[in-house]
Automatic annotation (TrEMBL):
Entry-linked InterPro entries: A-D-PHexomutase_a/b/a-I, A-D-PHexomutase_a/b/a-I/II/III, A-D-PHexomutase_C, A-D-PHexomutase_C_sf, A-D-PHexomutase_CS, AMG1_II, AMG1_III, PAGM
Top class in the EC scheme: isomerase
One GO term of the biological process aspect: carbohydrate metabolic process
Domain Alpha-D-phosphohexomutase alpha/beta/alpha: 62-108, 129-178
Name of the protein in question: Phosphoacetylglucosamine mutase
Organism: Papio anubis
Alphabetically ordered keywords of this record: Acetylation, Carbohydrate metabolism, Coiled coil, Isomerase, Magnesium, Metal-binding, Phosphoprotein
PROSITE patterns assigned to the protein according to its UniProt record, in alphabetical order: PGM_PMM
SUPFAM superfamilies (alphabetical): Phosphoglucomutase, C-terminal domain, Phosphoglucomutase, first 3 domains
Active site as annotated: S75
Catalysed reaction, written as an equation: N-acetyl-alpha-D-glucosamine 1-phosphate = N-acetyl-D-glucosamine 6-phosphate
Length: 554
């Protein structure tokens, strides 16, 4: 198509691109990959990536004739890191073919950059005369402001228009993109629009709670010293009728994600630093960009209890199912988990709740995609990423029911309507999830201990193994079985047989250069042994490097 190539050359100001690109030069030889969470590495290596993602966002916007989002964050990573993700028109993660383009563009050496840009435009049939609009958000990292300026440089040099929202949580940026591409029907694309939409639904929902005593009114929130603190502080007066939040690790002194936040609490199975917890007080932690949430409490004996994404999914799906029964709608509701879901949660959902459960590969986009197959799809990773999705048809049906049905049924339909409004339909959102959970607990009169007692988690252990090349491990069946290297799955099967209620799997990490090992069994000791033995099998059969895995000492 020589004609298109000609147009491409004319419509891109190649001179300007070269000039500006030189101001955001790529360090020679640096190779990065657009992974499950976009690009993520040390902040000082990211300037060129940001500029180029600005360019790419313009092309994607032109191609989809929609607003595209660019979020500058590295979520739960240490403060020194940073990262960037693109957000597609309906608030979803970037389409897979564009992830590949992102990787190619980020890794092109300076002199090849233009060629790659033109290649992408041609492959994707981008009409360069189309207008482009990009919205940008960033977290509170010290490096984020400058890096988001580099994104803006990239957008501008390709002639794109932009709106810089400045500090936002990741889910808030997804919300903005979704609102802008749905003509305002979903909500107003402003921070007040977000606060108003969620708070109104929350306050209406909790008004229906008969028991809204003090116990349900207050919650301690660990904000990981991140953006969640700023945004919750701005938002709290909108919903203060229904809930009072006490913020900890609000960034005023501590370091981002350091000894606090959802990732720390989940992986260390202990409370964050900087938060005083009295027995039976309800507490939760966000991660650094506020798209993950876990709950926890100390019991009367001072024992720590974690309530992870699996138990959150259980609470939410049970409540939704009850409401559907009440209004007499037989909609199909499904729960989506990953291999990391605790075996007890899966058993409880299937056998007690009678809700169908599906398993996908790790990474929000896989769960999200599967959840879209249901009228109502509830998805959560054990680590606290998740939400509930409602199909448009279901949303309309429920809104109609709320108008038409008689008293008791109407009440249930109204509640569902509010829950739909509360969940950020564009992405899993710690603030949304928190408000939905708080509302459900108040409506059902459940204490945090009663919620926790729905089922007992099987003891489990996660370990990491260093290998020369983690790609030698490939998996199937939603990462629950290893296909290669030969003999590894057989070895795991034999080890698992030695323990009761046991299960184990291994997978190459998508974010770190390690192989992850997961094991669960009837006791902590057995889970620890099994995880260690599986680690040794990985070390031997998958090319372990460095020191042999040591037994777990707790
Ligand atoms: C990314 C994913 C998260 C997943 C994690 C697994 C998104 C937004 N984030 O952080 O869902 O749990 O990777 O990391 O999709 P791993 O591959 O290193 O175990
Ligand atoms: Mg995050």
């Amino acid at each position: 198509m020589p004609e298109t190539i000609f147009l491409n050359f004319v419509d891109m100001d190649l001179g300007a691109i070269t000039k500006y690109s030189a101001l955001h030069a790529k360090p020679n030889g640096l190779i990065l990959q657009y992974g499950t969470a976009g690009f993520r590495t040390k902040a000082e290596h990211l300037d060129h990536v940001m500029f180029r993602m600005g360019l790419l966002a313009v092309l994607r916007s032109k191609q989809t004739k929609s607003t595209i989002g660019v979020m500058v964050t590295a979520s739960h990573n240490p403060e020194e890191d940073n990262g960037v993700k693109l957000v597609d028109p309906l608030g979803e993660m970037l389409a897979p073919s564009w992830e590949e383009h992102a990787t190619c563009l980020a890794n092109a050496e300076e002199q090849d950059m233009q060629r790659v840009l033109i290649d992408i435009s041609e492959k994707e049939a981008v009409n360069l005369q189309q207008d482009a609009f990009v919205v940008i958000g960033r977290d509170t990292r010290p490096s984020s402001e400058k890096l988001s300026q580099s994104v803006i440089d990239g957008v501008t040099v390709l002639g794109g228009q932009f709106h810089d929202y400045g500090l936002l949580t990741t889910p808030q940026l997804h919300y903005m993109v979704y609102c802008r591409n749905t003509g305002g029907r979903y909500g107003k694309a402003t921070i007040e629009g977000y606060y108003q939409k969620l708070s109104k639904a929350f306050v209406e929902l909790t008004k229906q709670a008969s028991c809204s005593g003090d116990e349900y009114r207050s919650l301690k929130v660990d904000c990981a010293n991140g953006i969640g603190a700023l945004k919750l502080r701005e938002m709290e007066h909108y919903f203060s009728q229904g809930l009072s939040v006490q913020l900890f690790n609000d960034g005023s002194k501590g370091k981002l994600n350091h000894l606090c936040g959802a990732d720390f609490v989940k992986s260390h199975q202990k409370p964050p630093q900087g938060m005083e917890i009295k027995s039976n007080e309800r507490c939760c932690s966000f991660d650094g960009d506020a798209d993950r949430i876990v709950y926890y409490y100390h019991d009367a004996d001072g024992h720590f209890h974690l309530i992870d994404g699996d138990k959150i999914a259980t609470l939410i799906s049970s409540f939704l199912k009850e409401l559907l029964v009440e209004i007499g709608e037989s909609l199909n509701i499904g729960v989506v988990q990953t291999a990391y879901a605790n075996g007890s949660s899966t058993r409880y959902l299937e056998e007690v709740m009678k809700v169908p459960v599906y398993c996908t590969k790790t990474g929000v986009k896989h769960l999200h995609h599967k959840a879209q197959e249901f009228d109502i799809g509830v998805y959560f990773e054990a680590n606290g990423h998740g939400t509930a999705l409602f199909s448009t048809a279901v949303e309309m049906k429920i809104k109609q029911s709320a108008e038409q049905l008689e008293d008791k049924k109407r009440k249930a339909a109204k509640m569902l309507e509010n829950i739909i409004d509360l969940f950020n339909q564009a992405a899993g959102d710690a603030i949304s999830d928190m408000l939905v959970i708080e509302a459900i607990l108040a409506l059902k009169g459940l204490t945090v201990q009663q919620w926790d007692a729905l089922y007992t988690d099987l003891p489990n252990r996660q370990l990491k193994v260093q290998v020369a090349d983690r790609r030698v491990i490939s998996t199937t069946n939603a990462e629950r079985q290893a296909v290669t290297p030969p003999g590894l799955q057989e070895a795991i099967n034999d080890l698992v047989k030695k323990y009761k209620l046991s299960r184990a799997f291994v997978r190459p990490s998508g974010t770190e250069d390690v192989v992850r090992v997961y094991a669960e069994a009837d006791s902590q000791e057995s889970a620890d042994h099994l995880a260690h033995e599986v680690s040794l099998a990985v070390f031997q059969l998958a090319g372990g490097i460095g020191e042999r895995p040591q037994p777990v000492t707790s």
